[in-house]
Amino acid sequence: MSDPRETQYDKLPEGRRAGELSFRELLRFAWRQITSMRTALVLLLLLALAAVPGSIVPQEGVDALATTRWREDHPTLAPIYDKLGLFDVYGSVWFSAIYLLLMISLVGCIVPRTLVYWRALRAEPPRAPRNLARMPDTASYRTEESAEQVLARAREVLGRRHRVRKAEPGEDAVSAERGYLREAGNLVFHLSVVVVLVGFAIGGLFGYKGGVILVTGDGFGNTLTSYDDFVPGSLFTPDQLDPFSFTVEDFEVDWLLSGRAAGQARGFSADVRYREDRDAEEKSYDLRVNHPLTVGSTDIFLIGHGYAPVVTIRDGNGEVAYNGPTIFLPQDQSLFSFGVIKAPSAQPEEIGLEGVLYPTFGMTEDGDPVNLLGKAANPLLSVLVYAGDLGMDEGGSQSVYVLDKADAEQVVDEDGKPLRLDMRPGETVTLPDGLGSVTFEGLQDWQRIQISQTPGKMIALAGVVLALAGLLGSLFIRPRRVWVRAREDADGTLVEVAALDRSGGGEVAPVLEELVAQLRGNQPLETKRNETS
Q1: Which residues touch 435 (CB under 8 Å, ≥6 apart)?
Q2: Residue 477 phi/psi, 5° resolution?
Q3: Which end of the chain, N or C, is less surrounded by CB atoms within 10 Å?
């Protein structure tokens, strides 16, 4: 016999100190912590918080140009953000770690609860308590029918909407239970979170997202070299690209001309002609915001628009060194835009233009230039001129939205001030020192097109539907137990009925009244509510 004074610490294996865990015990402890519901909720909150930087800090996979500008504007913070992975939040190690831990935690929560629920689903309702009068909601009446008749009717009535316990010899009560789907709703809701996460994971691994800016009238073929930016999934392969092509034939904007939002676009649409493959019949589609064109497994979205000034640059020899539309990027909702134009073939020196576009130019009372509307009602192109080496012959890649001015000199006017060309459509300005001339021919529209494949989107959608179904089930299904006992004595048969709402807050009295009404016929009824039970 062991000494009753012996403590659990006295039973520790030799060499073990109090509080020490073996490797197996440590793994079991870690697993219990990770798979607890509290941990799952904390991880879900962390995942939501981790996604916040992705909507605040420019992401390389979404807008590489905005990321580049942010780096230039914040030279001190940019290296820190790079180390933290804030420019690619959803592909960072720490975000993936939270994602995977949440998946493990949810699965660890769901599997044991499912096993418990399965056992409860197969188990019979519990026996009736010895004293039904102590239940929170009870009712009783007397009848001249035998106890056997009352219990038989109770089984028939309760069997319509409840699961009834099998009858046993000598048993004087009927036990029934309903509302098993409430726990199923909870399990489905938790499972739906896993399904949604799996759907997003599949899309992130096997899908891709790319973007391209097209001037109205330009075409696009779905090849890797046609994209301005392209972010593939970890397991993406080029043979996933659908062999479609399309051309933006026309573009229309519905402008707001009054109210607080005057000058902004109410909506815009692009008339697109496309082929699903090289030999397919050409079709048309009205591409609008939130109305993507789906070709095969690829979705094509219209997500933005702007202006491309058409500029002609003639060099000092009178030759055309540059001609065509140049995409200017909007700086605000009024489409006040910034851009650069490069003419590396100009002679005797390369020519570069850097400046802004006012779609509807105006002046404030103080004489400062301002853009009034997004609609091109009074366009003005205002650019500075640079001449010299633009760095385009060095062999490295160079952004079309950045002008390398390291080895170029700014052109000045007769007064020695920086030469600024303010041109309206159709105007031509001659450059000093025999550099040539610049002509502002007019404006064309451009469209920002996003092209993506998200293989797991239907799985994620199914997860959302499951979440809604599970949530409705857990909110509106009320688990309830009901007992009916019948005992014969000298005065007849005493029938006692009790009900218990297991979810709390449910109104049981109407349920009792309905059940007793079906059992007793015209017998007098006595009901009681035990508030202290």
Answers
A1: 315, 316, 346, 348, 349, 351, 385, 387, 411
A2: -90, 125
A3: N
Q: For residue range 217-276, what is the model confidence (pLDDT) as tens digits?
A: 999 999 999 998 888 888 888 888 999 999 999 999 988 877 777 777 888 899 999 999
Cβ atoms of 245 and 223 within 8 Å: the answer is: no
Q: Shortest CA distance to 222 belongs to which of 398, 447, 62, 449?
A: 449
104 membership: H or E segment, kind and range: helix 93-122
Question: What SS3 class is residue 146?
Answer: coil
Task: Report pLDDT digits (tens) over 418-444.
Answer: 999 999 999 999 999 899 999 999 999
**Size of the chain, expressed as the number of residues it contains:** 533
> Residue 432 has what pLDDT?
92
Q: How confident is the model at residue 65 (pLDDT cuts 50, 70, 90)?
A: low
- Percent helix, percent strand, percent coil in the chain, to nearest 5: 30, 35, 35
Dist CA 441 CA 428 (whole Å): 9
Q: How far is CA 225 from CA 59, 219, 230, 305, 354, in A?
A: 21, 13, 9, 22, 27
Of the candidates 162, 143, 119, 222, which has an alpha carbon nearest to the alpha carbon of residue 452? 222
Report which secondary-structure segment, H or E, holds 69.
Answer: helix 64-73
Burial class (CB in 10 A: 0-12, 13-18, 19+), 240: middle
Cβ partners under 8 Å of residue 387, min gap 6: 349, 350, 351, 352, 408, 409, 411, 433, 435
pLDDT class of 452 with cuts at 50, 70, 90: very high
* Token pair for 428: 């031509």
Asked if 508 contacts 499 with a C-beta cutoff of 8 angstroms, the reply is yes
Check residue 407 and give its pLDDT.
87
- The model's confidence at residue 20, banded by pLDDT at 50, 70 and 90, is low
Instruction: Round to whole Å and give the CA distance between 164 and 426.
Output: 89
Task: List, in sequence order, the alpha helices (H) in 306-377.
Answer: none
H/E segment holding residue 461? helix 457-476
The residue type found at 327 is I
Question: If DSSP codes are grouped into helix, strand and coil, which group holds residue 15?
Answer: coil
C-alpha distances in Å from residue 223, one per residue of 228, 238, 240, 245, 421? 11, 8, 11, 9, 39
- Strand (E) or helix (H) holding 476: helix 457-476
Task: State the Cα–Cα distance between residues 326 and 324, nearest whole angstrom.
Answer: 6
Prediction pTM value: 0.70
148: which 2 tokens? Answer: 């056997």
Q: How far apart are CA 299 and CA 286, in angstroms?
A: 14
Question: Strand (E) positions, 331-368?
Answer: 337-343, 351-358, 361-363
**Phi, psi of 31, deg, nearest 5:** -65, -40
